[in-house]
Amino acid sequence: MGIASLIGYIFLILLIIGTILVILTDEDGDSGKKIAWIIVVVLVPVIGVLCYIVFGLNPRRSKEYERYSRMFHEEFSKYSGQKPYGKLFGEHNREKIREGYRELSVLLSHSNGTTVTDCNNVEIITSGKRKFEALVHDLENATDHIHMEYFYFRKDDGSRKIKEILMRKAREGVKVRFIHENIANIDISPRYYNEMKKAGVEVVKFTNSRFSLLRLSARLNYRDHRKIVVIDGKIGYTGGMNIGDDYFVRWRDTHMRITGNAVYALQYSFLYSFCSSGGRIPDNFHEMFPEHDSGQKRYELVQIVPDQPVDRWPVLHMGTVWTVQHSRQYIYIQTPYFVPPEPLLQALKSSALKGADVRVMIPHKADLPYMNLANKSYYSECLEAGIRIFEKKGNFIHSKTIVSDDYLSVIGSANMDYRSLELNYEINAYIFNEDTAVRNKEIFIKDLEECDEITYDVWKKRPWYLKLGQALVKLFAPLL
After folding, report:
1. What are 359's strand-pairing partners?
2. Phi, psi (deg, nearest 5) at residue 162
3. 63-307 to CATH, choices 1.10.10.10, 3.30.870.10, 3.90.180.10, 3.30.460.10
4. What is the longest distance spanned by two Cα atoms in the chain?
5. What pTM was estimated for this model as a whole?
6. Annotated catalytic sites, by residue?
7. pLDDT averaged per 10 residues in sequence order, the chain, 480 residues
8. If residue 167 lies in a helix (H) or strand (E), which one and from where to where?
9. How far apart are CA 370 and CA 142, in angstroms?
């Protein structure tokens, strides 16, 4: 072995050891995720190290992100006006939540500080056709501003219709601001967005690339998976549906149309993303938070919870674990991707073992081939613990919902996997209301009509090669 080869070999060994030490000393890292990264680094050293630098670095202790968040909050408190600020960050509504759930609201407020809001009217939308028609109607009637933030914004028929409305409203003088996710829409030509800009739409690409630390990871790994629309500060949309014909026509998904004070929280989250991605807003943005009509027919308590990998605490993961652990009678979950991090997996199993009716509904066939193996790799231990698993046939189910004990509903953008709960920018709505929970439970039970239940006795008899494939995929589940 020559001197150059020896030096290269020693350098490679030191690089592997150094990377493993960085992985092991990450104070917030999940042990399963650490093991997966160590395996990758050892098996394919150079590629593994590069992948860890791009995809594995933990930003939750970054002072730069923390500083920017604090600065934005200070600017908001200065210019938003006393009433919107009080609605978003006051604690007066917490006493209206059922006593056993108030601590959950406190936990969830550790995202961006926003708390539970009252006087909300929530329409749960389970039809893509209904979402498209309602959204078109509300966009057409916008008079002041339209704010839109989406993971996917496609180039198919439904998407072009929405795009044309946005451009026309901008020409009419409505202020239209639009955030598109960077990597997810990489196949969309810049010309598509330039047409919007020429019409007067303020388009920004979500990257958070302004920060020097973790810039590469922020750009490539931390995806903006949110779906947000705010119209005139009075109407909000959020949930699982992106802009595209898969969501408008082909898939089964769940979304919400919200009026009331929760729209303030959607607006706050959008403005933070817009500014952190390089957008500019006027100092008088208190006009984006108009007074809401108090004559609501329903008064749901809603807490909008944005989560992002640069926040100190993964509140959506923690909130999901809390919800599972505190379920008494039942907890019903719909998710297209079921790759639960270890704390959530243990919570699900312990909830079933203590006697709660725990049901998980996932697609019979995932839209991503490798996710079929990943989803099923958790079946054995879940079924053995008494968790009931249902695979939905027919239209692919993209819905991300939780309902528990006829009181708490969760509807949003976060899947039940590592990427959503640890890496993505997500947003969920926690709804503390009996009627909404009953409605959400009815939707789940209705979907059961198109499901096959997977039983443990049958599952144990699957072919050996499927068992092997699922076991191998499970090793890398934290990296999916």
Report:
1. 332, 388
2. -65, -45
3. 3.30.870.10
4. 82
5. 0.87
6. 225, 227, 232, 398, 400, 405
7. 66 72 67 74 73 64 65 71 75 90 93 85 96 97 96 92 97 96 82 94 77 51 90 96 93 96 94 86 80 68 90 90 97 96 94 97 85 83 95 94 98 92 91 96 97 90 74 64
8. helix 157-171
9. 42
